[in-house]
Amino acid sequence: MSERKRSIKYIVLALILLVSGLVGAQETGEENWGAWYMYFGTNQVSDKLSIHSEAQFRYFETQGNFNQLLLRTGLNYHINPDAIATLGYAYILTDNTFEEFEGDIDSKEHRIFQQFILKNKVGEFLFEHRYRLEQRFIDFGDFTDTQHRARYRLQVTLPLTDTFFLNAYDEVFLNLQDDIFNQNRLYVALGVHITENSSLQVGYLKNHFSRIDFDRLQVALFFNPDLRKKK
Predict the structure, then answer these.
(1) What is the pTM of this model?
(2) How far apart are CA 21 and CA 16, in angstroms?
(3) What share of the chain is helix, strand, coil (3-state, %, to 5)?
(4) What are the boundaries of each domain within the chain?
(5) Distance separating the N- and C-terminal Cα atoms of the chain
(6) What values do phi and psi take at 9, rounded to 5?
(7) Would the pLDDT of 174 be above 50?
(8) pLDDT the model gives residue 229
(9) CB–CB of 112/146 below 8 Å?
């Protein structure tokens, strides 16, 4: 067995042990796992500009019981291949039976965000650092609220073959008012390259809040066609 294959084997075993420990570490908010079904797109329109598109459908259970709809778009400016700045907008419709908020009030949110991504490679590992600021304008029906939040995500991708890869990240959410801790998301997944510009990831997310945890199955489709006119 080559050194690279041996390293990959140990990493896979470590991820399996990590997920097993996380699942059993704390009680979840529900008896059943929830699910997030997601689409992400990056469409290059010029050498420096691309358009981000995103849709997420989140459920309390894997096959139903609606939790949240999230639609997000943004304009990316590619400073260089390893540095990207983004200005974007998101619309979020939430069933607040989920315990991020107290009570059972549904909410609609308009969100503006600014984002900066840095990428680097160490050996076979691909690292991505994502820094994001959010201005959240939330309508609870009886009242509205404006909140500000900062997020940092460290993501690591490891190619296994030309087709398969492992992906993992941890992301912390910090409020810029009131209690500083908002939530933390820890994610591991197996990915497959479908075509040159599309891939699929199936993974597990531990969504941790200050008082409760939630287990989520994640299924994500990535489609990144280049829309630049061919010369």
Answers:
(1) 0.85
(2) 9
(3) 10, 65, 25
(4) 3-223
(5) 45
(6) -60, -45
(7) yes
(8) 76
(9) no
CA–CA separation, 217 and 35 (whole Å): 5
Rounded-to-integer distance, Cα 117 and Cα 105, Å = 34
Q: Say which residue the tokens 């650092």 belong to.
A: 129
Helices (H), the chain: 3-25
Q: What CA–CA distance (Å, rounded) separates 228 from 65? A: 40
Report the distance separating Cα 224 and Cα 231, nearest Å.
19
Place of tokens 């591991």: 188
Condensed to tens digits (0 to 9), the pLDDT of residues 36-52 reads 999 999 999 999 999 99
Mean pLDDT along residues 72-82: 98
CA separation for the pair 35, 59 (Å, rounded): 5
CATH 1.20.1090 fits 3-223, yes or no: no
Which pairing describes strands 213-223 and 34-44: parallel, antiparallel, or unpaired?
parallel
Cβ atoms of residues 206 and 36 within 8 Å: no
Q: Residues 157, 126: contact at Cβ < 8 Å?
A: yes
Q: Which residues have a Cβ under 8 Å from the Cβ of 7 and sit 6 or more positions away?
A: 124
Identify the sign of the CA torsion 181, 19, 192, 39: negative
Which of 134, 155, 118 lies closest to 74, judged by CA?
134
Helix (H, G, I), strand (E, B) or coil at 30: coil
